[in-house]
Amino acid sequence: MMVRNAVVLVAIVAVVAPDDAHGQCFVMVDSTGGVARQVDVGRGFVRWFQSDGIWAHCRGEDTRWQSDSAAWYQDFNRFDMVGDVDFRDASVHLTADRASYFTRDERLEAYGNARLVNLRTGSVLRGPNLTYRRRVPGVRDTTEWFASGRPTIEYRSADDSVGAEPYIIIADRVSMRGESAAYAWGRVTIDRSDFAAEADSATLDTDVGAGTLIGHARIAGGDSSGYTLAGRVIEYRLTGRKPSWVQAEGLANATSDEWRILGDTIQFDLVNDRVERGNAWGDSTRPRAVSISHSITADSLAIYAPGQHLSEMWGFGSARATSRVDSMDTETDWLAGDTVVARFDTTAVGRTTLSWLEAHGSAQARYRIYPADAPAGMPDISYSRGARILVRFEADQVKRVHVAGQTDGVYLQAPRGRRQ
User: Which residue has the higher pLDDT, 206 or 338?
Assistant: First the structure.
């Protein structure tokens, strides 16, 4: 009975899948269980049904599948598999509760606990449903996957070492083309121990080494990195599968443990998952860097932070830096010029402190100075102008102001006690 069932099925498939069918699957049944039933549906077409197990393959290919039961619809060129479906070809291994294989366009649709493994890269897709389009000469030149219902992808590259950590991609809908390109739409998250991202939609291509996050985009380093970057659109590049460059556009903002940076566009170079340097610029949102006690605003900003320890910040074009003695201070000191440069030191406990500020070109400064003999809460006021102004700090307070090149200014001394 098993042999008779197999012969019937092969005869049916041969009607729609001849030897010259552009490399499409010519179904061969290896064995079956139970009894097969055939129904003539007219116009020269039949339908065939089989229960109690079926094992089949594509003739001349390393493509095999099995299921608890099956049905062949000759009029639709569709082969249905129901119950414990297990499908494998040269590219993937797929399991599901049920699946339909459309032989004309080499498309497999799986439903219920669908799981697809890329046998070359080790990437895994899990979800309630998925569509797998096979790479077949004359039909398509690369594999394609698509899934909806908020599936999960464990995304790996063929170049990954054994045991390498995957990117975990979750979205309302996901698609993959070939072995490197992934696309996602709807509440997208991409996570790894050294990387976290979210957006309305996203792309990632490890062969090209680049990705894009679109709509409410946000990217962050691992827990120890302490940086986040957000904007309407974020583009990023990968080196050795690690982010090496990121850029946010549209209401961009970046945060670290101690600073927040705003601008139309912000970009960072990353080394070992940490910010090394960056820039910010824009028209609708003038770039600004803000900490608890300092801020710098300019037409554009340049940030230098080796190992993510801020060492210098440059403001170019109508630059202005402000300082507060403490967070409760309602009055700010300021330094302005065509260019403003801030340099920072890192304390033994890892805290970043401002060591000095410098302004070039039409420089101006207004600072409060607290001499030892000044009355409490009544500092001296220094207002200066010059070609170049240098302000030195100690313990976040002004220590000295040096003005050079066509200087002028005013020094207002707070009243001292009456002399005896």
Answer: 338
